[in-house]
Amino acid sequence: MKILKFDNMTDEWLDFVVSCRRGISYTYDIVEGPMADDTIWDYIEDYIDGIITREAFWVLVKFKYPTHQIAFCNDKSLENLKYEGAYSL
Predict the structure, then answer these.
(1) Which 3 state secondary structure label does DSSP give 15?
(2) Helix axes 11-21, 38-48, angle to 10 degrees
(3) Please, which residues have CB within 8 angstroms of residue 52's CB and are 6 or more apart in sequence?
(4) How many Å apart are CA 87 and CA 62, to the nearest integer?
(5) Strand, coil or helix: what is 71?
(6) FRET pair for 9, CA 20 to 30 Å: which of 34, 48, 53, 74?
(7) CA atoms within 13 A on the CB side of 87
């Protein structure tokens, strides 16, 4: 399986998110890492549109703590999931 994992928001992460937004395809089965919430996504769009620079983007997100996500990008990746159970909180 081809897995791409980002531990933190980095320049590489930003470049990947921007390329996805531009419709550039990738060959990863699973992508894991920070998820751009509404606020962070607004900053990404401003960066893509040239409203802010990359440096300004990093200043704006400095104190933002995104949630974590795992994207299963194709059937191959989903076949590796195994249900182990559930519990109520």
Answers:
(1) helix
(2) 80
(3) 43, 46, 60
(4) 36
(5) strand
(6) 74
(7) 2
* Residue the block writes with tokens 């200043």: 59
N- to C-terminal Cα distance for the chain? 33
Mean local confidence (pLDDT), 70-77: 94
Task: Label residue 33 left, alpha or beta by phi (over 0 means left) and psi (-120 to 50 means alpha).
Answer: left
Q: Assess contact for 3 and 28: CB atoms under 8 A.
A: yes
What is the distance between the alpha carbons of residues 66 and 83, in angstroms, rounded to a whole number?
27
Query: For residue range 25-56, what is the model confidence (pLDDT) as tens digits?
Result: 999 999 999 988 888 899 999 999 999 999 99
Return the pLDDT at 64.
82
